[in-house]
Amino acid sequence: MIDESTVLNSIIDWNIKLSYPLLRDQSDQDRFIAFIDVKYDQDGIRRPSEKYVSELKRYFLTIGVYIDFISAKNGAVSIEEKLRFILINNHGDLIRNSFLSIDKNSANVWVVPKRDLSPFERDTVRNISIEFLKQESLTLSGFEFSGESNLISKTGCISLIRKFAPISQENLRIKIEERGFVVPSDNWLSRMLDNIRRSSFVMRKGDGTYVLTLAGLRAGGTVKTPRSPDVQRMLELGRRSG
Fold first, then answer.
1. Residue 219 in 3-state DSSP?
2. How many domains does the structure of the chain reveal?
């Protein structure tokens, strides 16, 4: 098993700067994760280049070491992205995705598993998250697997946008949480909105707010019952103006 300092010194010898401590794969001691500090010069040329990084990766393979190099523009890699990569890299057979929200010095983690996990597998994923957060000077305040959380559906999200449009992502989050649903992170909600936009039901205006498209309005129906989206929207507008 190669020493971690040997790997790190080799990376430094290649004049590559890391934006985060080198991580060793606990399930494979000869596999590492390295977050590279990538910068672009005034001509838009990337440093270090992808070709240069590939050459370094091939060098490590010749000595039996595999490294996943993750590019971080100007050293910026979010804590959520780091945790997601670590979980999926170590347990890609178990984990589909993960989300994280931070409140001061603590964090809540939501994990999307590929299947039902055993108690041992759940504890393993949770312990990895705890150890990672320690490196970020954070404590774990909450940990859940999706399916155990009360997440709003795509249809429910569209209904809220229809009722409160035009609405910003921040205000949409507030409306979702007011109804007792959990929003794992801003990234999770952004993905939800991007997914809805791809379905052509919602569009994002120039000011960053969201409104329904004609297709979205048609999909929501036009029956005017007291609980129909259009009636609810008119009542809401009345409350705002009042």
1. helix
2. 3
